[in-house]
Amino acid sequence: MGNVNHEQASLLLRLFELRREPRLREARRFVIDQLDTASAEAMTKQCPPGSENNASLRMVLSYWDMCSGIVNRGLIDEEFFFENSGEQMVVWEKLKHIIPGFRAQFKNPIFLANLEKHATRMVAWREKNAPGSVEALKAYLEQARAAAKAAGH
Predict the structure, then answer these.
(1) Best CA proximity match to 97, nearest among 40, 136, 28
(2) Do 88 and 122 meet the contact criterion of CB atoms below 8 Å apart?
(3) pTM higher than 0.85, yes or no?
(4) End-to-end Cα, the chain, rounded Å
(5) Which H, E and C letters describe 79-139, residue by residue?
(6) 3-state secondary structure of 25
(7) Which of 41, 63, 94, 125 is deepest in the core (most CB within 10 A)?
(8) Which residues make Cβ contacts (< 8 Å) with residue 4, sequence separation at least 6?
């Protein structure tokens, strides 16, 4: 089952330990539960430059892009990481439709490229190992977005 060694397991545990840091935990909660990603305009309005929301968004995106880069470079066995994580796919699914616009706006074609490559492979892995789970996640995210909108968030 993969080529996982103690060093990779220790790195994975360290990445998960970082997720427990209070400020990152707060930021993750905001991005997952409250961030309006219906459009780039909605997200920018909710996360204006210099705001706490903007800092939270940047913190979560940079964390998951960094983790994805670690996996993409083979520093942690990919399947091992996929088996033990999933939040990065939630983040990517929430944002993927507006990322091309941000890449164009900031002339940065590699913005979140690590996360995109990682999430694309994770979707394929999930479809192979848990058929239907990706569509279930997308349906859940859509329901959550609709509920937040109805609640005025």
Answers:
(1) 40
(2) yes
(3) yes
(4) 44
(5) HHHHHCCCHHHHHHHHHCCCHHHHHHHCCCCCCCHHHHHHHHHHHHHHHHHCCCHHHHHHH
(6) helix
(7) 63
(8) 77, 80
Provide the token pair at 34: 């409250």
Residues with Cβ within 8 Å of residue 87, at least 6 apart in sequence: 28, 32, 64
Boundaries of every domain in the chain: 6-150
Burial group, residue 96, by CB count within 10 angstroms (0-12, 13-18, 19+) = middle
State both tokens at 150.
């109805």
- Name the band, by pLDDT with cuts 50, 70 and 90, for residue 148: confident
Q: How far apart are CA 50 and CA 56, in angstroms?
A: 11
91: its two tokens: 């983040």
**Residue 130 to residue 146: CA distance in whole angstroms:** 26
Q: Tell me the C-alpha distance between 61 and 64, whole Å.
A: 5
